[in-house]
Design brief:
510 residues; alpha+beta; Arc Repressor Mutant, subunit A; BirA Bifunctional Protein, domain 2; 7-stranded mixed β-sheet; 3-stranded antiparallel β-sheet; 21% strand; flat; EC 6.1.1.20; PheRS_DBD2; metal-binding; PheRS_DBD1; magnesium
Length: 510
């Protein structure tokens, strides 16, 4: 077969027609079938091209019969091919040694030096003289050598691998000169509907075929009604749930304990008063907070602690002059949908203070909070707050900045800036900003600070214990930066990132 014909036969249809013609020819010679590997060599085709033709013909029905067969054969590695052309490493080393010998250091610099030296020494072809003046010197120990390694490889190349003993093949394999490969071939025979020409089978019955009646003379491809279709993608977790899991894992890796956050309803005492937030604060207005009608008020409080909170609000204490107003119990008893998970942190810190001996603690929470916002493109009535709290002796603003850097680095956020801020229950306070690669600007990613003594000391925490804390929203764009940058992976299909950035939950003024 000419090279031109071989090039033309590279397509699956052409290869299939050549295979059918070859099958017709061998059948005329009285042979029952042919091997796909031998047929590929005879037709000048790559074996994989012919295998594709076999599978294509199998889809046409009973044109051919094909039985898959598996065999193993030995092939030369690239290094084995090199030895056939240049000789084995040990022979090359032997031939490179002149009559006056060669310094071992020079021999080792030869391309075949290291391997050849070891093998030639094993064969006792060379000897080493360590008493040489300039260092160890190598001399030939025999007059001539026979390159049996090359001879064995030539046998394999000539298709005579079966003539080699198993130990020889294993030795050559160990030297990475031979490799045993598995070859999958097909034994191809004529089928009941054999033909040397391929008629294209129709896949669709069209209205035109029915109207003209041409469908009667056409051959249609069989449908496999038992074939399973592609399973539709379904059951994906919401991207925010995946990101939430990632945040939780980061906290756990940093040694934090998760706080119980199943209390959506809180009293104003734990939500505001315990945090040293005054009762006339605008956040307590009905325009900002959802207050409960039933039950409207909480009943159970730790009374000693409540009295200390009342005193520090109205009269001051612990080095503070307080807010100097008339603190009312009925205001503290009002039930509401919690506006932040810091209410949970206050409960946990109070429980920590009641222990007989103080032990440092690290807490975190991720859960829903509620704000009485007017719903629009940038505001929702609920969102998820992430909060971290660390309590220990002598914690400073530097410790807070260090923990924040570690926390955000684990998120993949490394460019951070800190800006002084005001919070009723932290002093000093900081807003945290990060450069957002997607939006190309610095955006706020959270709030943080050191809890005030007016909040901690009434709880009963020892003097000298500091508590650093930070909070952020799961939905804010920079907080789901990791999720946004991997949003395609999270949801399992293509997503327009600009649509994500412009969505209500990701607007910067949210």
């Amino acid at each position: 077969m000419s090279p031109t014909m071989a090039a033309a036969a590279t397509g699956p249809d052409s290869a299939a027609e050549l295979l059918l013609q070859r099958l017709e020819q061998v059948a005329a010679d009285g042979e029952a079938g042919l091997c796909s590997l031998e047929a590929a060599a005879a037709l000048g085709l790559e074996h994989q091209v012919l295998v594709g033709a076999v599978k294509s013909l199998q889809s046409l029905g009973e044109v051919i019969e094909a039985e898959q067969r598996t065999s193993k054969k030995w092939e030369l590695t690239p290094e084995g091919q090199e030895i056939i052309h240049k000789g084995s490493h040990e022979v090359r080393v032997f031939n490179s040694i002149p009559s006056e010998g060669l310094l071992q250091s020079e021999l080792m610099q030869l391309p075949s030096g290291k391997v050849g030296f070891s093998k030639a020494m094993s064969n006792k072809w060379i000897r080493l003289d360590k008493s040489s003046e300039n260092g160890p010197r190598i001399f030939q120990a025999v007059e001539s050598v026979q390159d049996t390694v090359r001879e064995k490889l030539l046998q394999v190349q000539n298709g005579e691998a079966n003539c080699l003993e198993e130990k020889d093949k294993n030795e050559l394999k160990k030297r990475k000169l031979l490799v045993e490969v598995t070859i999958k071939t097909y034994w191809v025979k004529k089928g009941s509907a054999f033909s040397t020409t391929i008629a294209k089978q129709e896949t669709d019955l069209t209205p035109e075929m029915i109207a003209s009646g041409s469908w009667r003379d056409l051959k249609f491809k069989s449908y496999n009604f038992e074939a399973l279709g592609i399973m539709p993608e379904s059951g994906h977790l919401h991207p925010l749930l995946k990101v939430r899991t990632q945040f939780r894992q980061i906290f756990l890796e940093m040694g934090f304990t998760e706080m119980p956050t199943n209390n959506f309803i809180e009293s104003s005492f734990w939500n505001f008063d315990a945090l040293f937030q005054p009762q006339q604060h605008p956040a307590r207005d009905q325009h900002d907070t959802f207050f409960m009608k039933d039950p409207a008020e909480a009943i159970d409080f730790p009374m000693d602690y409540l009295k200390r909170v009342k005193r520090v609000h109205s009269q001051g204490g612990y080095g503070s002059q307080g807010y100097k107003y008339e603190w009312k119990l009925e205001e503290a008893r009002k039930n509401l949908l919690r506006t932040h998970t810091t209410a949970v942190s206050a409960r946990m810190l109070y429980q920590l203070a009641q222990r007989e001996k103080f032990t440092p603690a690290k807490y975190f929470s991720i859960d829903r909070v509620f704000r009485n916002e007017t719903l629009d493109a940038t505001h929702l009535a609920e969102f998820h707050q992430i909060e971290g709290v660390v309590a220990d002796y002598g914690l400073t603003l530097g410790d807070l900045m260090g923990v924040l850097k570690e926390f955000f680095t684990k998120l993949g956020i490394t460019q951070l800036r800190f800006k002084p801020a005001y919070n009723p229950y932290t002093e000093p306070s900081m807003e945290v900003f990060s450069y957002h690669q997607g939006l190309k600007k610095w955006v706020e990613v959270g709030n943080s600070g050191v809890f005030r003594p007016e909040m901690l000391l009434p709880m009963g925490l020892p003097d000298g214990v500091s508590v650093i804390a930070w909070g952020l929203s799961l939905e804010r764009p920079t907080m789901i930066k990791y999720g946004i940058n991997n949003i395609r992976e999270l949801v399992g299909h293509k997503v327009n990132l600009q649509m994500v950035y412009d969505s209500p939950l990701c607007r910067l003024d949210a």
